[in-house]
Amino acid sequence: MKKELALGIDIGGTSIEFGIVDREGNVLFEKDFPTKSFDSPTDFIEKVASVLKPLSYTNDLVGIGIGAPNGNFFTGNIEFAPNLNWEGIIPLAHLFSERFNLPTFMTNDANAAAIGEMLFGNARDINDFVTITLGTGVGSGVIINNQLVYGHDGFAGEYGHIRIVPNGRSCGCGRRGCLETYCSSTGVVRSISELDSPNKSFSTLLSIDNPSAKDVFEAADEGDLFASEIVTFTAQTLASSLADFACFSSPKAYILFGGYAQHYGSFPSIVKKFMEEEILVIYKNKIDIRISALHDKNAAVLGAAAHLFSNLNTPQ
Q1: Could you tell me which CATH number the domain at 5-115+297-312 has?
Q2: Using CA atoms, how far apart are residues 306 and 116, in angstroms rounded to an integer?
């Protein structure tokens, strides 16, 4: 019996990852490249084709799933993604389908992560949850009654662009005060220069060239007081936002996916503590904060593949 495989592609602001995944969620092959190494989507597509050409797996591919920022399920386009150097409207699903002669489905990267979590990860036991992706930007995938919420135009789930601070930090989307300017990995780094604290001048972070969010969390682990303040500020900001979001969909869990959420062990419990302090009383102690179970297995690629499998036999 022929094995059914999917090509899962995750396009992030920092890196592009792709892999071949079976229906059981096993990643049989994966590869990644810096996003900015491709001047155009066509360059990227041809690179994927050249990498996959010698692999025997490709004979069993039944389709392609793509997760991308501002990826529109209904059109198959990436539309004005602020964190990509490919500008405007990019018909990526069509380009891949044409190049590989395979059915191709596109969605927001956070939506893909949510589907991956539902089929293969830490949400298999629940019907209502929200994934929060904490990377170069902040995204969300909203699942209600086991159904992904797309909205009428395919753009539901852009929670990273909820404005939480009036006239706050400038955002790549062109507005100010968006959640992702505070709680993405780049937002964490911005806090080094934009937060004031008497402990700031003593921080080891000031001696690091081009510090990362990982540097902030590691410094906090090592007792750096200013770094600890940034971690607390980030957790409080995210928790307050999640407390408000509960009023929309009343999820059973928020599932955090992303580098610092995965690697800084106490961060989810800090978020949970602050969320419970601010949440409406009818939601208190009802919502879990979970960590993606797929991180070490590449949740983004699995999610993109899961999106393909979930749509392959569904009438469009």
Answers
A1: 3.30.420.40
A2: 5
